[in-house]
Design a protein that fits this description.
With about 150 residues, the chain is an all-beta fold. The protein has no helices and seven strands. The protein has a domain of about 80 residues.
Length: about 150
Amino acid sequence: MQGCAPKSTPMTPTVNTKNLSNEKTQTNPKLSNLVGKNYVKGIITSLNQDSSVGAWNYVIEGVDTSNGKLPYVNFNHKTVVANEGDLVHASFDGNRMTEMLVIKAGYFKGGKFQDVVPRKKPVAEKGAGKRDKAHQILSVPQEEFVKLN
């Protein structure tokens, strides 16, 4: 018998609904389950050692959320990769940190951003000015020697 199915009574689906709107969630609203590749560019605001687990707890507040970067990350890592107050770029694969790059060490200390002060160029004497060949006047040479060996 091709294309035929045995006769049976159709199963009625069971509906299990539960109203979750009245229950309070105890999780931080900034945290979410990380799925796939995620990135964060931000400042390490907290770095504490958790002696029970033997890992370091990092809290990174994002400063750049463009292109789908995360605004907040809280994770554990077995070693110290960067210090508190550093501006970093970190990548995550799921809940695991795969890479952390320090952009600027000591970027945020004591509640203040450390401004980048440009180095001043040394000031030359006022008489010398800028050298430019366009304003030089060359005289015609009086003598010229060419030696061939």
